[in-house]
Amino acid sequence: QVQLMESGGGLVQPGGSLRLSCAASGSIFSINRMGWYRQAPGKQRELVAGTTSSGTTNYADSVKGRFTISRDNAKNTAYLQMNSLKPEDTAVYYCIANVYGGSRLDYWGQGTQVTVSS
Fold this sequence. Notes:
mainly beta, seven-stranded mixed beta sheet, 58% strand
């Protein structure tokens, strides 16, 4: 079994910054892609950013230039640095990891709330 533990969410003023972390633990041989999705009230879950084990990254157009995804493969941990936050970034942020631990499966974190408000 694999668990993803997210941390770093909270309340921040517009223009502020937050850093989310997602640590994977359990029966892990390797992790391919890791990424972050978000879901705002009344909206569908959307991809925010993703990264492969080799460091290739992709971002939603709405966060390009403001958010940066990174990962520490030795720690099975991904990070999302969020700068210049806007009220429309308010959502529950979910981490996802494509993990090989005997079979290859996608695992989700429990979600962490990010609220951008003055």
